[in-house]
Design a protein that fits this description.
There is one protein chain. The protein is mainly β. It has a domain of 65 residues: N-terminal domain of TfIIb. A hairpin with a 5-residue loop joins strand 3 and strand 4. The chain starts with 10 loop residues before the first strand and ends in a 22-residue tail after the last strand.
Length: 94
């Protein structure tokens, strides 16, 4: 387990065609599962159901960034190939 004090550029949220968010963190994709009571979100590895992967991430959003507050990055598989044509937007302000 780990958490907190990560650079904002390590976590990105993408919008899918269906409107759901996908979290990209350390080269892996995570699917949104639910919102936390304090305004954060809970994500599980996108291979959770298909491959039984137990990796998960908790995040909070600020005006400037997505902040990872807690994570378990013990995946049971290799990172997926993320197409280069996907535009990843960060909430960092210049």
């Amino acid at each position: 387990m780990g958490g907190g004090n990560l650079l904002p550029s390590e976590a990105h949220i993408l919008q899918t065609w269906g409107g759901n968010g996908i979290l990209i963190f350390r080269g892996y994709k995570y699917s949104w599962r639910n919102s936390k009571k304090r305004g954060g979100a809970y994500w599980t590895c996108s291979s959770h159901q298909k491959k039984g992967c137990k990796a998960n991430v908790s995040t909070e959003e600020t005006d400037k960034a997505i902040i990872v507050t807690k994570y378990n990055c013990e995946h049971t598989h290799s990172p997926p190939v993320i197409p280069k044509y996907i535009k990843i937007e960060n909430k960092e302000k210049e």
